[in-house]
User: What shape does this take?
Amino acid sequence: MKQKQTGPPKTSRPSSEAEEVGLAAYAYYLPPKTVSLDHLARAGKLESSASVLRSFGFNRAYIAEPPSSSQLAERAVERLFRRCSTQPSDVDAILYSSALPVQAPSRSADPASLFQYPASSLQHRFGMVRANTIGISQAGCVSFLSALRLAADMIRAEPLVHRVLCISCDVLPARVRREVLYNVISDAACAAIVERGAKRDRILAWSQVTKGFYGDSAQRKNEIVAAYFPTARFVIHEALEKARLKLADIRLIIPHNVNRKSWEILLQILEARPSQFYGRNIRMRGHTIAADHVINLQDAVRAGRIRRGENVLLFTFGFGAHWACMILQH
Amino acid sequence: MLLLTGASGELGGLLVDRFLREQVALCLLTHHKEPRQVSENEVEICHGDITRPRLGLSAAVHRRLLGRVTAILHCAATTSFSASEAEADRVNVMGTKHVIAFARACGKLQKVGVLSTVYVAGRRKGAILERDLIHRAGFVNAYERSKYRMEQYLRKQHSLPIAVYRLSTILGDARTGRVSKLNAVHHALRLYHRGLVSMIPGEPRSTVDLISSDYAAEAVFHLFYRRFGAGKTYHIVAGQKQSLTLENFLETTAATFERLDPRWTSRAVAVPPIVSLNTYRLMEQAVLESRNSVLGNVVRMMGTFAPHLAYSKDFSDRNTARALSGSGIRPRPLQEYYSGIIRDCLSTSWGSRN
Assistant: This one.
């Protein structure tokens, strides 16, 4: 069925500089250890064969050992502050997103020990004394883009909020397989400053569809695979419409690093040019739940694939199930 | 006496009813033990097998029928799109050859009607005339290839009065909505309803030609019984005016599901996008490589007919229209009876409760 849009279509072209919101800076962190597909297969960490996953474009996974998401998140925030001129004390809010539940590492019988939050730890660790902290969950791989979206909404809605730090980190527990629905999963973290009046990577549009029927990802995986392409096409077209752009106006499609074959199919459905797709990290990095878009965006910028003023389309799918698209102007 | 093969089939059964209303002396050739409930006063039931010489009949029965049969309507076939080439040829080609051999030996034969399919046109595109047959476009499945071979054989039987009735895909009874036999289209609709169809190959504006079983039966009856045309081929189709475009068909199906199944809306199943055949093949390949058994079965099933949607055809039915003129027999627009068909499919859980 066609998705019904409620309310008048929102224009995402800001009418004044005060409403312009963008990514002032971003950084990512990958753990140092990488593991080959063959190694993962031998360790029983794959559901499909290594050869099938290789044909789907994967090559390796980055694995955090020991699996500690707080350390990865800290590294990402450290890199971010080293690269930008923003002072920690200038951050007004922290949105911490993770697809996986954040486990409180405590063996204490005191229930108060359950309430330990990485966002609070990072707020203290980096001296972001003015920042409120909020957690975002239940959005799977859409979590980080959701954080960017909410940061932008917060800035636009609250005059006193100028800078929001979005942090995302996911580390798979050691006991689980490293493959989800034909995608090889890497651990990673990323951080981005969403800022009022940012001169780069302005957020032009956002579109999201959630289909709760597919919320049980294990039971509905076949339906999810079937729904993936038509719903992806819908949210991408809706985001483009909101931004008043056509696909031809997009310089680069920044993917979540799901298997390359699914991207080849989606690009054909969209009638996108292969040169519009930045897919090199699928093989190099695997699919990080938390940080694909920051990794790909940063690497694409460094490689000169995007110039100032050009438009970039970020698409992702997350269990829950969510399809989301964000359009930026670099 | 009319010898009718395939009485157990969807169309064969309706034709038996039709002939009985005209009080035609009928002999039903069947390999089933009890093909249908008819009184022995109405028909003679002969247990045989078209895939065997002499139609698998005993010598005595064979001899008796040769002296009595004046007309043959050959409906028996394997119509499964997933049939192997060997099986499809065995029944549809060899079986027909045995029927024709019987026809040649009949002492009083006046006419032979043979059911075929419009999809003998295979992967051809564009206008398909009733007189057309030979082509090199290839086929989507073994069933249509076997019917093509069958027709090639029939065209060489010059001395026999043979008419060929090529049917489009039958959806069900337009009067009652009843689907007595699910075919590949119903299975595809079932998969769509379940949210397992990710995309459809084709062109948005190409037509999806579907006919009702009652129209098919009335048309075949009239063409064979009242307006027999030896040497002629007839297309029994809905035609472009009574058909929906592929885009409209998918949207109408979604709207119908939404209306008839309260749970459909909450599942938020997306209308499958219409894609090029290349893109569809890419998806098929990816699914088969993944070795996902459920989705693999989906693409294998869809692969027996869905590629047809990428070869847009316009079936001419001039012979049929001329012969049916004045009879009042015409195909109903799909929109008029489609809801009934879907309602029947949903209420029987896609045939599982029949």
Q: What stands out?
A: Residues 201-329 of chain A form a domain with the Peroxisomal Thiolase; Chain A, domain 1 fold (CATH 3.40.47.10).
